[in-house]
Design goal:
It contains 12 helices and 9 strands. The protein is α/β, with parallel strands linked by helices and 259 residues long. It has a 6-stranded mixed beta sheet, sandwiched between helices. Helix 1 (28-43) runs parallel beside helix 4 (81-96), helix 6 (146-154) crosses helix 7 and helix 10 runs antiparallel to helix 11.
Length: 259
């Protein structure tokens, strides 16, 4: 892989976007590598109990690769379909897994990178991070789950303002709006994101997965309650649940296996 690296250790699938100084452009190669890395994490679910997506360099990602698009000439609208299709698969894979997802943002996150942040369970942002809508600035609609997750996080009115008025939010504004979970000093980002990933990687992974899917559901109340009951049954059938109950009753530390 040239656009990113994947390191699996300590229960964390750590995906590092490796072209930060070039803006980690969302071109075809990048989208293919990101999808492959996330699918690898899913395939190795026993080893990957949390997913951390971060970047090196000055910026998280500028989103779509405009130079690549411009080079497509009259095929620009057709060429855009391939990376968008892969980004759709990225969003679905991240949404359906058990492992919680953390995105750590430094510098600029624009366009599809905002979508990638919005699909995450946790966004840790450096104080100097910025979130730029970008799509309307080049006459495009949005992708990477922005229209689904962003209104659920920040509300319909704020999401409409952000996307249609092509706004830029600093980290403080993104935190107030609900896009950012944790705002930290610039030099504390790496440690804060890794510590959170490690904490989640030692948790009840199956229970986390059931809750992730419930929190993303649009089902009516009766169906949602039935899904909750099914989630309780599924997580109660793991080794983690009875082991945790016994440990708590014995006033001993709880150690989750993630299974």
């Amino acid at each position: 892989m040239s656009a990113l690296t994947l390191d699996i250790r300590d229960g964390v699938g750590r995906i590092t976007l490796s072209r930060g100084d070039a803006g980690n452009p969302f071109d075809v190669a990048f989208c293919a590598e990101l999808l492959a890395a996330i699918r690898t994490c899913g395939d190795r679910r026993a080893e990957v109990r949390a997913v951390l997506i971060e970047s090196n360099g000055r910026n998280f990602s500028f989103g779509g690769d405009l130079r690549w698009l411009a080079n497509q000439g009259d095929r620009m609208h057709e060429a855009a379909r391939e990376p968008v299709a892969m980004l759709n698969d990225v969003v679905l894979a991240l949404s359906r897994g058990d492992a919680p997802v953390i995105v750590a943002v430094r510098g600029m996150a624009a366009g599809g990178a905002v979508g990638l942040a919005s699909v995450a369970d946790f966004v840790v942002a450096a104080e100097g991070a910025r979130f730029y809508a970008a799509f309307a600035g080049i006459g495009l609609s949005c992708d990477t789950g922005c229209s689904y997750y962003l209104p659920r996080l920040v509300g319909l009115r704020r999401a409409t303002d952000f996307l249609l008025l092509n706004e830029t939010w600093d980290a403080a504004m993104a935190e107030r709006a609900g896009l950012v979970s944790h705002r930290v000093a610039d030099d504390a980002l790496d440690d804060a994101a890794w510590d959170l990933a490690l904490r989640l990687a030692t948790g009840p992974t199956v229970g986390f997965g059931e809750m992730r899917r419930l929190l993303r559901s649009d089902a009516p109340l009766v169906e949602q309650l039935a899904m909750e009951a099914a989630g309780i049954a599924c997580s109660a059938a793991t080794r983690d649940m009875p082991n945790a109950v016994r440990a708590l009753l014995a006033k001993e530390p709880v150690a989750f296996e993630g299974a």
